[in-house]
Known about the structure:
Pfam families: F420H2_quin_red. By secondary structure, the protein is of the alpha+beta class.
Amino acid sequence: MNRYLQPGKADGMFNAVVGVLTKLGLSVAGSRVLLVRGRKSGQIRSTPVNVLKVGGQRYLVAPRGQTQWVRNLRAAGEGQLRVGRRVETFRFAELTEAEKPPILRAYLKRWAWEVSRFFDGVDHKSPDEVLRGVAPGFPVFRITGTA
């Protein structure tokens, strides 16, 4: 599914503030700055992301769908997560649709205040079949280790 929601002005302002604070070392509710090489330009691109921890694993969820950072991450095969001066280079595995529902549920429970508008009424209390139904629209990556 090629679901993509264009960021609005408020999203841009929010991401800019979170990005600056995170670069300064002040993580906002678990935020990191994702650094990934652009698939066309080759230049390093950055965007704030939320790193979700579930069962000892870490995940990145794309609440707006097939964003540029998602496409770039897939093409690059690795990325970096930054908080302040601390930078971690990582590899990842993209989850299958069947693996996504518990991660989406945990993500919505943790960050509904920030991302619920992207989920069209689906929340952490939604039945599994509803989460399975929306899963194709939300790329999810498990961080598998450092590169």
